[in-house]
Specification:
Structural class: alpha+beta
Helix content: 25-40%
Largest sheet: 8 strands, mixed
CATH topology of the largest domain: Heat Shock Protein 90
Number of strands: 16
Distance between the termini: 74 Å
Number of domains: 2
Strand order of the largest sheet: 5-4-3-6-2-1-7-8
Bound molecules: adenosine-5'-diphosphate, magnesium ion
Shape: globular
CATH architecture of the largest domain: 2-Layer Sandwich
Radius of gyration: 25 Å
């Protein structure tokens, strides 16, 4: 006789798929912003509050979820959007132009675990009740717990004020994951055993170490989320009838740093890094160049606000409204620009600006011809890349333009990848050398022109035209398949006619070297 058994899943799996996959806070935020975009939100805001228990809220005015959707979509891990149907029905689009879906793997929402361990999520569809759930992600750190033993408390309610009264119930059920509940004694025994074992391992080296169990137990739910946090959500203020909100407590240090009162230049290293990466990542979340004036991103606004006491400090907007912006207007002032498209076989057509002089109708054949099969095709893509001479004397740009570009290169430098005009991480980030810009420079600085931080621009892929360029399960980056390798290669290896230097190896006219 054949016996059969099924896989058992430890609760830790959720932690592996979520928190552990996420590189850092800005990456997690961009993943959640993509969810709001997919829900046809017009606006998604991140608010970070200081205080004894720092809190962050991520709120949108998208179509929201009703209770069934919340259970079947949000609480069901790994459902590929191909199965659930990626088309958002017309009535859920809020009159907005069609948006190509960003979500792929069905685990993006788990990235909120990287922002803070305690999550209160509330969602509402137009003309439907609210649905809310409370999750402490630290439950999923216990390697002795089985996933099926964890219960996620969920409620629905009609008016905002009911939430406050129901929070203690939510909290009670959540604590049932530690203390057990009346209805299932077998589960209670498993839970007790799992927590005792886990605490034991946690205190192996240090008897006084605070256990995860104690950390979860010491959360005082009624003191965590207050009206000022809830009020950041348009639905709570009756400004919208639909949307989704995440309220997160005990937030990651990198988020806390955003509420710092210290001047950037006086802040310690780790704080500076946290503040700069957040800006660098989120300021270019939406394609700033809008290669084809894409209508689908025109009604999507993102913002980050740090609250210091009762004083809001807009982070990204402040940045965008200040003089430090990179728009197409600024970009066009760069002395070297390559703008055009690469077709499915690697041929470039477009225009090239070298030391301020435009050359139109440039066509460039690829350095080598590669046979691609259906599954290795990278597909046609657009590109816009610009650079400038980092040595002032070598540049032909005016003093003011040069100084400005040089100043903003720290925030905006890097060659990014956008998919349907939203940023794919981590391309364009410091330390990411997917296009091997730095590697080439180190190898042969005389011939290779571009330097990562002094390069601006993007490669624009689309879900429709470049289906083989898929996101990794861990979401950071594209799967390292043949198609993505070819993309990187073709993007920077196009050859100029008659064996002149490669298109992307613009040599300096003045003898100096870019970036030196
Ligand atoms: N902000 C949101 N508004 C409405 N629905 C959402 C939101 N975030 C997540 N969801 C729902 O949860 C599902 C899972 O999201 P996610 O884990 O990011 O996977 P994916 O985006 O690949 O589908 C989404 O497909 C959507 O149905
Ligand atoms: Mg998603």
């Amino acid at each position: 006789m054949t016996n059969s058994v099924s896989f058992k899943t430890r609760a830790r799996t959720i932690d592996h798929l979520g928190r552990e996959q996420i590189a850092d806070c800005p990456t997690a935020i961009s993943e959640l912003w993509k969810n709001s975009y997919d829900a046809y939100a017009r606006s998604v805001e991140l608010h970070i509050f200081d205080g004894e228990i720092p809190v962050a809220t991520l709120v949108d005015d998208g179509h929201g979820m009703d209770r069934a959707e919340f259970e079947n979509k949000w609480l069901t891990i790994g459902t590929d959007s191909k199965i659930t149907g990626s088309e958002v029905p017309e009535e859920d689009r809020d009159g907005l132009p069609d948006r190509p879906k960003q979500g792929q793997k069905g685990i993006g929402r788990l990235s909120c675990a990287a922002l803070g361990p305690l999550l209160l999520i509330v969602s509402k569809r137009d003309k439907m009740p609210f649905v809310a759930a409370l999750i402490d992600w630290r439950l999923f750190e216990n390697p002795f717990l089985l996933l099926q033993d964890i219960r996620i408390p969920i409620i629905d309610f009609e008016i905002c004020s009911e939430l406050k009264d129901k929070l203690p119930d939510l909290f009670g059920t959540m604590m049932g994951n530690i203390w057990g509940e009346r209805d299932d004694t077998a589960r209670n025994e498993r839970l007790a055993e799992a927590w005792s074992q886990y605490s034991k391992t946690e205190q192996l080296g240090d008897k006084n170490a605070v256990t995860t169990k104690t950390k979860i137990e010491s959360t005082l739910i009624k003191d965590v989320f207050s009206d000022k946090h809830l009020a950041t959500w348009a639905v709570w203020n009756k400004k919208s009838t639909k949307g989704t909100a995440m309220f997160m407590a005990e937030i990651h240090q990198d988020l806390e740093h955003q509420t710092s009162k210290t001047r950037y230049s006086d802040a310690p290293d780790d704080e500076q890094r946290a503040r700069l990466t957040l800006q660098q990542t989120l300021v270019s979340f939406i394609d700033v160049f809008q290669l084809d004036n894409a209508p689908h991103i025109q009604h999507f606004n993102t913002s980050v606000t740090a609250w210091i006491g009762d004083t809001p400090k807009p982070l990204i907007e402040e940045f965008e409204n200040s003089t430090d912006v990179l728009t197409r207007h600024h970009f066009d002032k760069l002395e070297h620009i390559v703008e055009g498209a690469i077709d499915k076989d690697g041929y470039f057509t477009g225009r090239v600006k070298v030391f301020g002089e435009w050359h139109d109708n440039v066509t460039v054949k690829p350095k080598a011809v590669y046979k691609t099969r259906k599954d290795t095709r990278f597909g046609p893509f657009k590109l816009l890349i610009g650079g400038y001479e980092a040595t002032r004397n070598n540049s032909i740009m005016g003093d003011e333009d040069w100084a400005y570009i040089d100043k903003i290169s720290r925030q905006y430098g890097g060659l990014m990848i956008y998919r349907d005009h939203l940023r794919v991480m981590p391309y364009g980030r410091e330390g990411n050398d997917y296009f091997e810009i730095e590697k080439r420079r180190t190898k042969n600085a005389g011939r290779y022109f571009w330097s990562a931080r002094k390069t601006f621009g993007c490669i624009n892929i689309t879900r429709k035209e470049n289906p083989n360029l898929k996101d990794k399960a861990g979401r950071e980056g594209l799967i390292d398949n043949k198609a993505s390798k070819l993309l990187a290669m073709f993007a920077l290896n196009v050859e100029k006619p008659s064996h002149r230097p490669y298109l992307f190896d613009i040599p300096s006219k003045r003898g100096g070297l870019y970036g030196d």
